[in-house]
Amino acid sequence: MSIETNPEQLAPDSGKHIGDVTELLPAVRATATVPVASGPIKGSTLIAEAVSAWFGTHKVLEQVDLTMPAGTVTALIGPSGCGKSTFLRILNRMHELIPAAALAGSVRLDGDDIYDAGHRITETRRRIGMVFQKPNPFPTMTIADNVTAGLKLTGQRVSRSGRDGLIEECLTKAGLWREVKDRMNEPGGALSGGQQQRLCIARSLAVRPDVLLMDEPCSALDPTSTRRIEETIGELAHEVTIVIVTHNMQQAARVSQQCAFFLAEQGTPGYIVESGETATIFSNPQDPRTYDYVNGRFG
Ligand SMILES: Nc1ncnc2c1ncn2[C@@H]1O[C@H](COP(=O)(O)OP(=O)(O)OP(=O)(O)O)[C@@H](O)[C@H]1O
Q1: Is the CB of 84 inside a 6 Å radius of any atom of ligand 1?
Q2: 114-171: per-residue pLDDT in tens?
Q3: 80 to 88, 218, 265: CA distances (angstroms)
Q4: Which domains does the chain have, with CATH numbers?
Q5: How far apart are CA 83 and CA 269, in angstroms?
Q6: Which has fewest Cβ within 10 Å: 4, 233, 279, 290?
Q7: Which residues have CB under 8 Å from 128's CB, separation 6+?
Q8: Beta carbon of 85 within 6 Å of any ligand 1 atom
Q9: What does UniProt give as the signal peptide span (predicted)?
């Protein structure tokens, strides 16, 4: 099979940087972490084993093993083009939507392989939601309808009386309720970028996922909106397992408890150099390449 996508569309995004590289490590050390809500841990544990991925004949991931425990925010970090987004898409079966894409290995959600023939894709995507880089609410649909838009797609029903409660609950969890409670019938497109991203998080939560995947959810947002989303991540961490791709090292340090550092060297497929507790990855990594990356020496 051949790669059908225009290679120019695949070039790494040269516009992405990891912030103020000169003082990164001291800044990371000095930055307070986002408060994580307390309470019983919900969510599910996701385990990727020996995951490799291809686009046509181009192998882009090599034997990736990673456990993403329930109640934990895992940050995927690494230079552009090392396969972080591909890995994220494999975690909820979106990779297979791309023509000529292939993969090997397994992904288990609380023990069940999501790629088993018996598993319905819609159920997998309900349990493992995705928030994208660019907020993508339905712009002409009302705020309220945006929140419940995923229910129909996943075959879930909610009673008329339960609907209002669900909308309020999800918007509250996404940190948006107070700002929009009197604007329920306005279109989603009328919100600011940061509000739209929180609306998308509320929409993801409405189908009651066990895992939320976030692909650079703040890269299109201003610092205030970014901070608000980071707080939301902290508030959600105990009830939904979160996996976030970020180029912002300070953000990774603030929101995650675990980090995985991906690298693809000289045209070889991406792999995980090192993963572990975020504090260790930033202050005392085992591999010198991890140290160099988190200190902004490359990437
Ligand atoms: N649809 C596609 N078709 C073919 N190759 C692709 C496709 N998407 C990504 N790739 C290639 O797969 C490799 C990994 O890309 P991926 O987007 O997963 O990396 P990334 O680490 O998330 O990068 P970035 O940080 O820039 O988003 C790159 O070489 C990329 O060019």
Answers
A1: yes
A2: 999 888 888 899 999 999 999 999 999 999 999 999 988 777 888 888 999 999 999 9
A3: 14, 16, 11
A4: 43-294 (3.40.50.300)
A5: 8
A6: 4
A7: 46, 91, 92, 109, 114, 209, 210, 211, 212, 213
A8: yes
A9: none
